[in-house]
Amino acid sequence: VQLVQSGTEMKKPxxxxxxxxxxxxYTFTAYYVQWVRQAPGQGLEWVGWxxxxxxxxxxxxxxxxxxxxxxxxxxxxxxxxxxxxxxDDAATYFCARSEGDTTMLDSWGPGTLLTVSS
Amino acid sequence: xxxxxxxxLSLPVSPGExxxxxxxxxxxxxxxxxxxxxDWYVQKxxxxxxxxxxxxxxxxxxxxxKISGSGSGxxxxxxxxRVEAEDVGVYxxxxxxxxxLTFGGGTKVEIK
Lengths: 118, 112
Hints:
Chain A is built from no helices and 11 strands. Chain A has 118 residues and is mostly beta strands. In chain B, a hairpin with a 3-residue loop joins strand 5 and strand 6. The relative contact order of chain B is 0.33. The chains are: A mainly beta (118), B mainly beta (112).
């Protein structure tokens, strides 16, 4: 099982970013893709999940108006798009695999570092 | 949202000793299945988190046998026996009972 994420992103406040999570080694549609972020030196914060089997999503309330989670089964890849970036969105964004919407995150990507600065 | 409170924040441990980390949930994590939906992760320097324990006490594939999880309801403990240098890292609990998934603040385990 492997989750490979896109590289470091540097954005200005107000811009958008789209992070990818390419998976391999398992059936993409059989597992949810969870997104978790970690601000520098801080703890872990759940962003939401994407279900590749149904294209369903669920987001933490604070992200509902700015984040879109999608996927492309043909390339086994999940995406997280965040709009109207603010300085406090600067963090490492991880994707992770889970069997269900609220089950253990058993494999994680290496993370994508997002910096937001004018 | 379910609040997860971990203690201590920092845990210096002598080699060979046992480390215990506590995690308390703001409400019961007991699922109708009978399992408590709490997981434990470790994040080593420069790495992504990795799963150690799921549903309270089940060791994940590849997790060392010396790591164990216990507890039920709202109070949970992660125990690391015979601590050695490779156990250094930040340990997080996470509740998987409902969304939003929420994490404890983390416990930094270091060698004395």
